[in-house]
Write a structure and sequence with these properties.
The complex is a heterodimer of chains A (about 140) and B (about 140).
Chain A: E1 4-9, E2 15-17, E3 22-33, E4 36-46, E5 54-65, E6 68-82, E7 89-99, E8 106-107, E9 111-117
Parallel strand pairs in A: 2-9
Antiparallel strand pairs in A: 3-6, 4-5, 4-7, 7-8, 7-9
Chain B: E1 8-14, E2 19-20, E3 26-34, E4 43-51, E5 62-67, E6 75-80, E7 86-95, E8 111-112, E9 116-120, E10 127-140
Parallel strand pairs in B: 2-9
Antiparallel strand pairs in B: 1-3, 3-6, 4-5, 4-7, 7-8, 7-9
């Protein structure tokens, strides 16, 4: 199985996607402390009247880090998000948090307006006349 | 107090750390040697006494973790996992027969190591910093 990667972008660059596409969100952090495991959680959101970070897609992945005395360890991980149907616009953002760890969840900044969702453009091809008859 | 016959020498090569965390496994490694005796190595156990300042010693909680000495070399490893915060006194003891669990009666002790003190303390919280999204891309499988 081959994974094809298209359009690698770093914040604040804008990635244009369509419903059904998969966005791979790569996050990183530094850690100092005892061995720990948890989940790295990323979400695609957009602002609504009630919630400035209303999540429309989310996913998480397990991670574990061995004992990390100072100066600590650097960790990089990714989460894949599938863009749901029914949304379009350029006000979509991403954020990541660490969950399932001892203590409170740890949040990344909210990266607003970095994902643009465009409706799937119908594709027509191979238009040809295949036959003609007298009637 | 168990009957104590000093006929087995217990040497600890990897003692417990002085401090550790609950629900973490620690290893005690060492070797047993019988003085002027031939035969199968004795049974070894880590005798773990949970120290409670408000309890008289005789009613303190004592548990045993078994180790398996290798024939000829007598080397053994005992794994122990404290499950509570607090202070423990751990001594490796040798017996001629397996101890029934839970221990009933007075087992004969044929040798014992120096006592190791162990404090199970609260696991320090880890420190996370610089959590950020570094890139995002479209992938197709």
């Amino acid at each position: 199985m081959v994974t094809k990667r298209v359009g690698l972008v770093a914040p604040p660059g804008v990635l244009t996607v369509s419903p059904g596409d998969v966005i791979r969100v790569t996050s990183e952090f530094d850690y100092t402390g005892p061995a720990v495991s948890g989940k790295i959680y990323s979400a695609l959101y957009h602002p609504t009247f009630l919630d400035p970070h209303d999540e429309i897609a989310r996913n998480s992945k397990d991670f574990s880090i061995t004992d990390s005395p100072p100066p600590g360890k650097h960790f990089t991980g990714y989460v894949d998000l599938t863009v749901p149907e029914g949304y379009s616009g350029s006000d979509f953002g991403l954020y990541t948090k660490l969950i399932g760890i001892p203590g409170a969840d740890i949040f990344s900044p909210y990266y607003d307006n970095i994902i643009e969702i465009v409706g799937a453009v119908p594709e027509f091809s191979n238009l040809v006349i295949t036959s003609y008859v007298k009637r | 107090m168990p009957e104590h016959l000093d006929i087995v020498k217990i040497e600890i090569t990897t003692p417990l750390p002085e401090e550790g965390y609950p629900d973490t496994t620690y290893k005690i490694e060492g070797s047993v040697k019988m003085f002027d005796a031939v035969g199968a190595p004795p049974f070894v156990y880590a005798q773990v006494q949970k120290k409670e300042w408000y309890k008289p010693e005789v009613v303190e909680e004592v548990t045993y973790e078994r180790g398996f000495p290798i024939p000829v070399t007598g080397k053994f490893t005992i794994e122990w996992r404290p499950d509570k915060l607090g202070t423990y006194e751990v001594t490796v003891v040798a017996t001629p027969a397996p101890l029934p669990l839970p221990v009933i009666g007075v087992p004969p002790i044929t040798g014992e190591s120096d006592m190791m003190k162990f404090s199970a303390v609260e696991k320090p919280a880890g420190e996370y910093s610089n959590l950020k999204i570094t890139s995002y891309e479209k992938v197709t499988v």
